[in-house]
Amino acid sequence: MEQAKITYDQLLSENNELRIQLEEANDTIEAIRTGQVDALIVNNGDSHELYTLKTADQTYRVFIEKMNEGAVTINRDGLILYSNSKFADMVNMPLEKTIGLSFSTFIPEVSHEVFEKCLINAWEEDCKDEIQLIGRNHQLIPCLLSCNSLELDEGLALSLILTDLSLLKETERQLKIKNLQLVAARHVTEKLNNELEDTVKERTNELFLSREHFKYLANNIPQMTWTNLPTGEVDYYNQQWYTYTGLSIEDTKKWGWQKVVHPDDLQTTTDKFLSSLRSGEIFEVENRYKRADDVYRWHLNRAVPLRNEEGEIVFWVGTATDIEDQKKEMEKRDEFIGIASHELKTPLTSLKGYLQLITSYKKEDIPVKVEQYVEKANKALNKLQTLINDLLDVSKIQAGRLEYAFSTINISDLVKTCIENAEHIYPANQFEDEDGSDFFVSGNTERLEQVVMNLISNAVKYSQENKKVIVRSARHGDRVRVSVIDFGIGLSEDQKERIFERFYRVEDKKFTASGLGMGLYISAEIIRNHNGIIGVDGELGKGATFYFELPLV
Ligand code: ADP
Questions:
Q1: Can you list the residues of the chain whose pLDDT is less than 50?
Q2: How remote is the CA of residue 551 from the centroid of ligand 1, in Å?
Q3: Does residue 517's CB lie within 6 angstroms of at least one atom of ligand 1?
Q4: 120 near 108, Cβ under 8 Å?
Q5: 366 with 233, same domain?
């Protein structure tokens, strides 16, 4: 029993002794590996022996230990004699456990052949190749394997250096993907570019054709034409312009056209042109252009803006039409109207006088029949009087002699008087006076009454079915607006634009009413002379609203 107990204690202490020796040995190996020691004292029983490690060896050991590549030494049997920490880390194994293992344990099936080939060659000469290494969690690590034979004390060995190519491969892969994307993007760009080039070619061609087309057209119409920039500078004239003016593009480009406009028309022309450039509204003005032989001829200028998809004005296209002959015709006609109406006035006045003489007889001296005829003659005479007055007004307007005295007028009173008149003249119609309050303006009562009566009689004349006419006066900012509203035949947009022109009448086969197209022309002139505006609203078939506005005093 005593014997057995001693043996157990002895064994226990021996075991402890051995464990301490093992730990010491491990520490020593680690110290040698990391270069912390370069000499060892070894106890060999009776005495101590000193082993020094060669300095050069130590440097290499440290170098190999610290390097970023896996380093392994194998013997002829392929067993690992030495490996560095990086290799142990790559294969995810404690370093000491790798020693003595066959290196091929870490080579996967796919790399067997390459590895074997490399191994065979390496004993003869240094070689390199790419292989895979089984790493952490059986993941394959792409590596560059460099094999060099080594002469060791124990015999010939092979040094294997394994460079981890994962990062390189990944970068390569990414690079490949990027490259592919780049190629695809380049293809798309090339395609787009080609398409764009085609479109540009097509457009250029279209543009060329349309420019040629425009030039052809422009040079073959009787009018003079031009194009100008949004700034007003003229950049093109057709041939007719050069022929007419006898001037070159150099003389008349940009604002050069002003040289050939009659001095009396220059201000109005320039003002209207600038105003259209600012507002984008159609430019329309009549003026005289000097011909090459120094003769001035009247022209009607019209220019319309051309806009891009964004609605911005790109340029203007203008035409100047020679209206000299029409002007002369009109002048002759106006002259004739002036003379004729003047000539008609005299017999009309005497007729009126004779009728008055007849009515001045005692009632019982005139037979009833004659009295009726006289009444009818008076009505016809009044109509004739209005017509002649209108004709005289037109010729006065033409001669710039439509003048009259101004005073302060109550528009509400004026409208009331006109409605009373209208009720008397047109008993079949209903008139509504929608009057806000008293509105005072500066003007000529007779002329303004003439305007209101003209609008009312038109409302009656052009609404045969619906007999209601509304006359409304209302404040519009610092103006009073008088509107005459009817529910008759109405007007189209085109008609509305031309309605205030001299002698303009709507041609309507279905509806005929007598008139000469002078009433609205005269009314517009009177309102203009009062510093007012005149206009029309309404729809074809639904009635019209004619209105004018005058500044309040
Ligand atoms: P007139 O009535 O003598 O023809 P106006 O100058 O008064 O001349 O009117 C010009 C034209 O305007 C008329 O011929 C007619 O076609 C149109 N017009 C005028 N007033 C109205 C209205 N209230 N409704 C529809 N059309 C009208």
A1: 1-2, 56
A2: 25
A3: yes
A4: no
A5: no
